[in-house]
Amino acid sequence: KVQSQQAPMSSRVPHVLLVSAPLQGHVNPLLVLGRHLASRGLLVTFSTAPHGGLKFGHGDGSTVDFGRGTIRFEHLKGGALWASDDPRYHDAMDVLRHLEETAPPVLAELIRGQSEAGRAVSCVVANAFAPWASRVASGMGVPHAMLWTESCAVLSLFYHYFHSLADFPSREAGPGAMVAVPGLPPLAAGDLPALIHAPEEIMWRQVLIADLRSLRETVTWVLLNTFDELERPTIEALRPHLPVIPVGPLCSGTESHGSGGHDDDDSVAWLDAQPPRSVVFVAFGSLLQISRDEMSELAAGLAATGRPFLLVVRDDNRELLPDDCLAAAAGSNRGKVVAWCEQARVLAHGAVGCFVTHCGWNSTVEALASGVPVVTYPAWADQPTNAKFLADVYGVGVRLPKPMARDALRRCIEEVMGGPEAVAVLARSAKWKAEASAALSTGGSLDKGIQEFVAAIL
Ligand code: UDX
Q1: What is the pTM of this model?
Q2: Which residues form a coiled coil (predicted)?
């Protein structure tokens, strides 16, 4: 419920300023973290730099009251930043580059403004991939935490790699070469996060290295979107190196992210009319671009299963979708294609039987928390590692080889929905759903993590 009035302010209540680069996979978990902090009575302000490519319904100056607390939105804005509808800033890399150059003084001004308004910031929580926010907070003497938006396993891999704490295979060693890192199962080079062996000039890699530097030099706490049961050995192995606090799973479940969607998204109503566990849900996050060939194999593979499907094709990929796929979906009412949906609510719907995913960490956590078996199709970043864990460590799905091929897709979907292994896969999915639910309950992993963090701020 969006309210026009300001949240109640008190100088004695700790004030947490949440700052995020405007990337969907980063804004979403930070917003959920904000809800948990506000529901414990903290004053919470959320700040990002919304642009046309971001699904985000909370405008500058608005507040959202979600029943147990209130979050106020005060965005990064000003001459150096962009107009929210400027199409030049729809590309994630341009956004990061531009923010690196322009956001620091704007954020500093925002922090000063809070003090002048009598609500001095007690702590800044900035997302990973916004190292400028850490620098600004530390330069102003404000304690700050980073919310790491990927798995603890991936953080540990980066940490060990960039600090030369384990023997990693060289770029030339090939995808089968193995690496052993404390707290992690043996991993093949092909399962490592793509940025480890990416060319040094790639900007994401440079931002990541800046992040890791700030983790050691300026960050007071590293909050993790994970929970004890999911990654306990990895979290414990990283504790001597970094002040980590698991505060996940940061997924909104049946509550809306409020991240703004398409007004015409009626996915949940459509799912209501489908039989239990019948629907194949396909979504590849907010950034991934797939090729025309992949899209046509995907469409043909879905058709070949004979099962109902809900397919998210973002507007920027829409022209890749074969016309006959759309026509077949519309004609039979067996399939539905949307430009965006409330994914966490879709995954929590009982009609969804399997999730074909690119394995972004938010999608991974949302799938586990919903107990939905997966077919993994990772592309880059942390996705190969998440795919490895989903299939081989958590045991909730199968890996679809690249490039996308219709027969392989159909076989993988059958394997998790109807084949001889499907019952075991579903049982393991249900186990992870129960673990996530325990982590979310009073006294669970999330509760303990948030309490630890709030106590530290206090
Ligand atoms: C990026 C990286 O690509 C990913 O590898 C990293 O782990 C996090 O940052 P993204 O690709 O967008 O994220 O994937 P993901 O982490 O899964 O986040 C997407 C978010 O958008 C999820 O919270 C998902 O629920 C939401 N979403 C996606 C929707 O709400 N509706 C959709 O239709 C699609």
Answers
A1: 0.94
A2: none
